[in-house]
Design brief:
With 339 residues, this protein is an alpha/beta fold. The chain is 42% helix and 14% strand. The protein folds into 2 domains: 233 residues, Aldolase class I (TIM Barrel), CATH 3.20.20.70; 77 residues, no CATH class. β4, α5 and β5 form a beta-alpha-beta unit. The two termini are 23 Å apart. This is NAD(P)H-dependent flavin oxidoreductase.
Length: 339
C-alpha cells in the first residue's frame, strides 16, 4: 500500500528539542524488529528510529547495523539497550562502548535500572531515555539523571509491569511528578493518540505495534496481516502468577501457557513453550502458532500495512487536525467530527 502526502510542518515539544528531531513520534525498540531499514525510515521522516542492540548477536554486529542505518539516513536515531537479569548476561559494557565509539548519542534503556550505565553515558554525551511502567520508577530514573522518560501503560506490548495502570491515568500522573521531558507508550497508533498524549501532559509518543505493522518492519507478512485482522481483544497476559506479566498475541501457545500457570504450574513447565527462539520463528517464518510474540492492545486500531515514513507524516498530520478541531469547538466555531 502506498499513499503520497506532503511533508508536514515540524511538531515541536520539549522532547523534539532535546533530541534534535522534527516530530515527537518514536519507534519502539522491539527485539528482532529494530533494525536499520525500519529505524532509518522513521528517522528520515522526522521521528526517532530505534535500533535494538541485543537483536544483534555481538557488539561488532551492532556496529555494522549502525553503519547500515547511517547509509540510509543522516538524521538522529537511537539505540535500545534492554537490561535484564540473566545467568549469563550479554556483554553490556561492550555494547555501550560500541554505541559511544560509533557516535550515537541517544540511548533508550529498559528493563532494570540504568544506574550502572549512567556515568559512562554521561561522560560521553549520550542522552538516556529510560522506559518504565510506573510513576515511582520514572521519578527514580529522573533522580539518576536520565534526559527523558518513556512511560509504558498497561495497554502496551511486552512487559506492562504489575500495577495495571492504563495510560489515561498513568500519563497525567507522570506529568504531575516529572520535570524532565517524557513520552507516552502503550496504546498509541495514530494522530488521535498523539494529540491525546500531548493533552495529557506528555511530550510525544512511543509506538511499537504500529511500526511492527509497517512495510519496513523485518517480520513475515503473515504477522502484519494478523495485526490488521486482529481486534483489541486478541492479546493474552502471560506470567501473571510469576509477577513477570507480559502481553502477547492470543494463539494456541499463549493460551496453553495461561492454562498451565493458572493450574499451579511453574516457569519450568512453560519454559519450552516460551523460548525466545520460538518467538523469533513467528517473525521470520510467519508461523503464527510457533511461539509467543509481543503485540499491544493497539492492534485493534491498526488498519493497514504502510511505509513507516508515511505513518510518521500521517500521525503528525492527524494530530494537528484533531487539535485544530478541538480549538474550533472550544472557540465556539464548530467542532463536529467530519463524516
Amino acid at each position: 500500500m502506498s499513499e503520497a502526502v506532503a511533508a508536514v510542518p515540524r511538531l515541536r515539544t520539549r522532547f523534539t528539542e532535546l533530541l534534535g528531531i522534527e516530530h515527537p513520534v518514536v519507534q519502539g525498540g522491539m527485539m528482532w524488529v529494530g533494525r536499520a531499514e525500519l529505524a532509518a525510515a522513521v528517522s528520515e521522516a522526522g521521528g526517532l528510529g530505534v535500533l535494538t542492540a541485543l537483536t544483534q548477536p555481538t557488539p561488532a554486529d551492532l556496529a555494522r547495523e549502525i553503519e547500515r542505518t547511517r547509509a540510509l539516513t543522516d538524521k538522529p536515531f537511537g539505540i535500545n539497550l534492554t537490561i535484564l537479569p540473566a545467568i549469563t548476561p550479554p556483554p553490556y559494557e561492550e555494547y555501550r562502548r560500541v554505541i559511544v565509539d560509533c557516535g550515537v548519542t541517544i540511548v533508550e534503556t529498559a528493563g532494570s535500572s540504568p544506574a550502572p550505565h549512567m556515568e559512562f553515558f554521561a561522560r560521553h554525551g549520550v542522552r538516556v531515555v529510560h522506559k518504565c511502567t510506573s510513576v515511582r520508577h520514572a521519578v527514580k530514573a529522573e533522580r539518576l539523571g536520565v534526559a527523558a522518560v518513556s512511560i509504558d501503560g498497561f495497554e502496551c506490548a511486552g512487559h506492562p509491569g504489575e500495577d495495571d495502570v492504563p495510560g489515561l491515568v498513568l500519563v497525567p500522573a507522570a506529568a504531575d511528578a516529572l520535570t524532565v521531558p517524557f513520552i507516552a507508550s502503550g496504546g498509541f497508533t495514530d494522530g488521535r493518540g498523539l494529540a491525546a498524549a500531548l493533552a495529557l501532559g506528555a511530550d510525544g509518543v512511543n509506538m511499537g505495534t504500529r511500526f511492527l505493522c509497517s512495510e519496513e518492519a523485518p517480520v513475515a507478512e503473515a504477522v502484519k496481516r494478523r495485526i490488521v485482522e486482529a481486534s483489541e481483544l486478541d492479546t493474552r497476559l502471560v506470567f501473571r502468577e510469576l509477577r513477570n506479566t507480559a502481553r502477547v498475541a492470543r494463539n494456541t501457545v499463549s493460551e496453553e501457557v495461561v492454562r498451565i500457570l493458572a493450574d499451579g504450574g511453574a516457569f519450568a513447565d512453560v519454559r519450552p513453550l516460551v523460548a525466545g527462539a520460538r518467538g523469533r520463528r513467528v517473525f521470520e517464518d510467519g508461523d503464527l502458532e510457533a511461539g509467543i510474540w509481543s503485540v499491544g492492545l493497539s492492534q485493534g486500531l491498526v488498519r493497514d500495512i504502510a511505509p513507516a515514513g508515511l505513518l510518521v507524516e500521517r500521525i503528525v498530520r492527524e494530530a494537528r487536525e484533531v487539535v485544530e478541531r478541538m480549538h474550533r469547538a472550544f472557540a465556539g466555531t464548530g467542532g463536529t467530527r467530519p463524516a
